[in-house]
Specification:
Structural class: alpha+beta
Strand order of the largest sheet: 4-3-2-1-5
Helix content: 10-25%
Order of helices and strands: EEEEHEHH
Number of helices: 3
Distance between the termini: 87 Å
CATH class of the domain at 2-74: Alpha Beta
Largest sheet: 5 strands, mixed
Number of strands: 5
Length: about 120
């Protein structure tokens, strides 16, 4: 299955990305099917080949979530963005019982122990 995905390029701590078409499970190192543009997250600038992206999507290539959001920003795709790093919220009742294990009773206060006189 072909995917539209980002390939990291650039120096350490100065990464930028190329938008490529490649097999879903193919490693990022090496050749790819086609180069469709670039994206620089440090400046939020990007450039894409709109006609080639539309061609690949029509032929069945699926964009990754991040690429989908980038293409929505570029105006190539319509629709809502996909939440990439959103963590699900816990209900309030789950937070209260998170500390207890199932079947465990609440701790009772310790009862005083009667002192036994020492015999000599």
């Amino acid at each position: 299955m072909l995917m539209l995905k980002l390939k990291r390029i650039g120096k350490k701590h100065q990464g930028s990305f190329r938008l490529i078409v490649d097999e879903k499970r193919h490693k990022m190192v090496g050749t790819n099917v086609e180069d469709l543009g670039w994206y620089n997250p440090r400046t939020d600038k990007f450039e894409v080949k709109k006609d080639r992206i539309e061609y690949w999507i029509k032929t069945g290539a699926q964009p990754t979530d991040t690429v989908h959001n980038l293409l929505v920003n570029a105006g190539v795709l319509t629709g809502k963005k996909i939440a990439v790093h959103k963590q699900p919220k816990k209900p309030a009742s789950a937070e209260a019982t998170a500390g207890k294990k199932e079947g465990e009773k609440a701790a009772t206060p310790a009862q005083p122990v009667a002192e036994v006189p020492a015999t000599q």
